[in-house]
Design goal:
Helices cover about 30% and strands about 15% of the residues. The protein has helices spanning about 5-15, 95-110, 140-150, 170, 205-215, 225, 240-250, 265-270, 290-305, 320-330, 345-355, 385-390, and strands spanning about 20, 25, 65, 70-75, 85-90, 115-120, 160, 180, 190, 260, 275-285, 310-315, 340, 365, 375-380. Helix 8 (about 265-270) packs parallel to helix 11. The strands form 4 sheets. Strands 10-13-12-11-14-15 form a 6-stranded mixed β-sheet, sandwiched between helices. Strands 7-6-5-8-9 form a 5-stranded mixed β-sheet. Strands 1-2 form a two-stranded antiparallel sheet. The protein is of the alpha/beta class. The chain is built from 12 helices and 15 strands.
Length: about 400
């Protein structure tokens, strides 16, 4: 099942509407049966809490947290293992993503040995701005954690503590990722980084592996190696969302304009003489799927706009419908380049875009500098797939 637009997804499931293109209708995909879960995420603003700092020899704080399927896991669930590794990580952080495969590989390496691995996302998803998602296709909502876990084949429980940070504050992670290693009696033997090389392929979990090996042997690590800094993205505590609220409000107040564009101007636009990836969406106010999915494009501009990326909207409304189109764009805070085709001849526009377009709306093009179309979506987008096409393009990327 498509996992694109959280709002669109929920609305479609609730209403039972068909997905449709203007001029076309298609049956919606059948929802895959899932194991029922009693857990429903409820991220919320909470009062500031004290954040602990675990010292060597401190006891592992208890936890009782849901995994991506809603199954709860506790500290006691791992009591049969001599070593427990707790990794505080998340979906969106480029550093966390850079270490992802190494952590998965380390879990494979210790299969059959008395070592348990778990990961916890401590972040409040409501404290994360779109502007902080420039290196990812996913935020830190619970359902997005499931998408990431399945996509990467996580071989460890991935737990969610984003509602109220009930347990993460007792561990006191300073960044994502931040790992903690505990011995059989669940006393802390190591805290800090996985290794000292962020870029994939340059490190091999040396610090974490050394900590696991020493702990299995019951040997202490050298003092200078037992606690290291954890480099990465700051933890998104729910009480630190004032800046998130302020930034969202400021975006809504930005000026929204709509400029008329000739077919010749469109041809120049599609040549993409810039040094950025250009995302172009053709839409109209009379096209139902267009107006439903449009907010996703604004979000993508906010996500990737600080990088080599630019979103442009092109309205196919009639030239005399400029006020109507502009009113819609303002309602969606579309503070980005917006154009209205300045011609009544729709076939002239189709000719400029190319024979691959059958004329139905919407249509979306991801264009490289020089005009090569890297990704084309005729009809309704799968926002997740489009975000992946953007972030996994060589011009963008998931890492620094």
């Amino acid at each position: 099942m498509n996992t694109s637009n959280r709002t669109l997804y929920i609305a479609l499931i609730a209403s039972g509407f068909l997905f449709f293109q203007c001029g076309k209708t298609t049956e919606p995909e059948v929802q895959r049966e899932e194991t029922a879960s009693t857990f429903v995420a409820n991220p919320q603003v909470v009062a500031e809490k004290p954040i602990a700092k675990l010292n060597l020899g401190d006891q592992a704080p208890p936890f009782n947290l849901p995994d991506v399927d809603g199954k709860f896991h506790t500290l006691e669930d791992f009591a049969d293992k001599d070593v427990l590794v707790v990794n505080f990580t998340c979906n969106h952080c480029p550093t966390a993503q850079a270490y992802e495969d190494r952590y998965i590989g380390l879990v494979h390496e210790y299969e059959g040995k008395s070592v348990a691995f778990v990961a916890i996302s401590p972040n409040s998803p409501i404290a994360v701005l779109p502007e902080e998602l420039g290196y990812t296709d996913l935020g830190d909502f619970h359902e997005e954690m499931k998408i990431r876990a399945e996509a990467k084949g996580y071989n460890f429980p991935y737990l969610y503590d984003g509602d109220t940070h009930e347990f993460s504050t007792a561990y006191g992670p300073t960044a994502t990722p931040h790992v903690f290693v505990f011995d059989k009696s669940r006393k802390l033997t190591y805290s800090g980084r996985i290794d000292a090389k962020e870029k994939p392929g340059t490190g091999n979990s040396e610090d974490l592996r050394a900590a696991i090996e020493a702990t299995l042997k019951g040997e202490p690590l050298p003092a200078e190696s037992a606690q290291t800094p954890a480099f990465g993205c700051s933890i998104k505590w729910a009480w630190k969302n004032e800046y998130t609220i302020k930034t969202n409000e400021e975006w809504k107040k930005r000026e929204v304009t709509l400029e008329k564009l000739s077919p010749t101007g469109l041809a120049d636009l599609l040549k993409n003489d810039s040094d950025k990836l250009l995302l172009v969406n053709f839409w109209a106010t009379w096209c139902g799927p267009c107006i439903i999915e449009y907010p996703e494009f604004v979000t993508m501009q906010r996500m990737y706009g600080a990088r080599d990326f630019q979103f442009v909207s092109v309205s196919m409304d009639a030239p005399d419908q400029q006020e109507k189109a502009l009113k819609f764009l303002k309602s969606k805070a579309s503070a980005l380049p917006n154009y209205l085709m300045d011609t009544e001849d729709k076939y002239e526009v189709i000719k400029v875009v190319g024979s691959d377009w059958d004329g139905s709306l919407p249509i979306t093009l991801l264009i490289e500098p020089g005009g090569k179309v890297a990704y084309r979506v005729p009809g309704t987008i799968d926002a997740l797939e489009l975000k992946r096409a953007i972030v996994d393009h060589p011009m963008i990327g998931r890492y620094y």
